[in-house]
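so i finally got all the pieces together for this one. its three components total, 546 residues if u count the protein bits. some of the lines might not be protein, just check the labels. i wanna see the whole assembly predicted at once instead of chain by chain like last time, that was a mess tbh
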Amino acid sequence: MSAPSLAPITTPSNGTVPTPGNLFTLDNRVFCCYLFWATVLVAKMLLMSLLTALQRFRYKLLALVPLKLRRKIFPNEEDLFFKNIEVQFDDPHVERVRRAHRNDMENILPYFIMALIYISTNPNQDVACNLFRVASLARIVHTLVYAVYPVPQPSRILAFGTMLLITFYMAAVVALRTLSFI
Amino acid sequence: MSAPSLAPITTPSNGTVPTPGNLFTLDNRVFCCYLFWATVLVAKMLLMSLLTALQRFRYKLLALVPLKLRRKIFPNEEDLFFKNIEVQFDDPHVERVRRAHRNDMENILPYFIMALIYISTNPNQDVACNLFRVASLARIVHTLVYAVYPVPQPSRILAFGTMLLITFYMAAVVALRTLSFI
Amino acid sequence: MSAPSLAPITTPSNGTVPTPGNLFTLDNRVFCCYLFWATVLVAKMLLMSLLTALQRFRYKLLALVPLKLRRKIFPNEEDLFFKNIEVQFDDPHVERVRRAHRNDMENILPYFIMALIYISTNPNQDVACNLFRVASLARIVHTLVYAVYPVPQPSRILAFGTMLLITFYMAAVVALRTLSFI
């Protein structure tokens, strides 16, 4: 802070790198990269809600004309604008989007916390930024091959495993750094 | 920190506002406001768990007297204190509370991360505080009209949309600030 | 930072304790303790995904020999490597693991946020560290008695209640500190 020191940065004799003052600012390139990709993933997750609603309403609107064929996919009674539609829970398209959304919550939300606390260990900047990029892109691919356009199996499991492995790697780094505080 | 400078705060010649040292302290009014309303929302979410349990036990306790009429709503076998109750998953009151709880997870948890990283961009204090207040109150209304006392449709979708729009606005602000770190 | 001051720390005349510069660094023992146990819980949650997949594949692999007895538990059509297996959603072992996983999301994810912002109120170090330890161990016990080896009821509700009470305690502390920013 204040005036930058002219003396070279020296590693203390015990071999640990001194932790910088504050890593959670826009001056930290890693934090900025996290901010950008976390924002993308938050937006992607919220779009899943809208995609679910869209799936429900698509059938709803389609159904306005042929009364008999109308799909019955609204889970709550007050969502039924027409009394002759029954509550139903098993529309396959809606359920697929909801499973993808749940999978997002299971994986992306722990990743948010893990990546945030991983930044506090002051990791190598290039490694950290690339981990954030790969993990985020993998989840976008996961959504595409799961909820938007179903694709045969190895694709989804690879996309799923990519973020999982990255999160486990971050967990290992953080756990090793803080093992003495068990 | 230390003694406050008497010199006026000057914007650097490149036009960017200098980022302050640390925004995640109790000295930052925006962070304190986030703390308060995030706490309220966390408490609200945890009360949903208790509300679900209450719904299950209400029928349980009611059922103690008329053995035949007792509702069978416990999902796990070890939750059945009486052997003649079967496992069941489709009690409408319990399922409604659980859908509301799931909707909370889908929307409030990403909002927590988004609002936290939005603070790091040092937003206008009044705008940020009011966004936190409106978003939190909207979700409380959402729970009331969804899980506690069902109300006809426009109310719930408005409450849902309010936090969704606020989260998207924060995402846009953060993404624009960090676009160069893609 | 730099050289420690020789002057005694004095409480300002208004009675508030001065907040230290930055609590979210590896210099703060409470934050390190949070890092370690949050990492453990993130790893535990991600293992639930793998446990679900394992449950699905266990039956899958077992089923390879006796074609007629093979369990049908894959929710998506593209997961069916053999055409004569139908999509099914109600395998009791898989559903139990998934309920445990959902319960994790409902409780651990809000706890992550709550504990993180609780640190910013600069709590007593021993109290905070022990809260993190007890809450995390309680959730590990919860997973064991729920998803791995089902145990009669009082055990699961005690493990569930422990983290719930700790989260409510943290919420009360934070809310009282920030009540003026409502």
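Residues 59 and 65 of chain C are 11 Å apart (CA to CA).
Chain C touches chain B through 35 residues (CB under 8 Å).
anyway lmk what u think
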